[in-house]
Amino acid sequence: MKEVFFNRNKINLDITNRCTLQCKACTRHYLLKDGKKIPGYDMTDYEFDLVLDKFDSFIFCGNISDPIFHPNFKGFLKKIYEADKYAWVATSASQRPKAWYKSAFEANPTATWVFGIDGLPHQSHMYRINQDGEHLFEMMVMAKEMGIDARWQYIIFSYNEDRLAEAQMLAASKDIKMLITRSGRFPA
Description:
This protein is 31% helix and 17% strand. With 188 residues, the chain is an alpha/beta fold.
């Protein structure tokens, strides 16, 4: 990560209302459970261009979505790269193929990608329902091998707290930094 990131003029964008996950403590989960529509829409290219001119750093961390499902997400990443600005991508969804991830990493090779895999890859679906943690882990490793700043976000829940040391060894073996967070949320 560029050290100047936290000193820059930055914005967090929730650029779509789409996600394939059903995380148990997510607002999206409760809205769907209650039969309500997920608010929001896909940010337009015009809207993105307006904020591109005003900010130096862009955080793509959806509140009820995952940025990888925006139809022009790779285009946004490329624009940020070409403008010599900074992008931080937080993703937990895993329903894109390997070729999609590769082209997204190539669209902005200076972006930081944070992969939310809560637990060892084979168990992360316990909280992040519908996540293929093994596939997402492979995409994180591929990103690292491509020279991308790839990080593993591991939220500690009761189901995965006893596997943290094993996850840390796995991350170290791939030279991937971990972002470890304790959660007050209920476990899976």
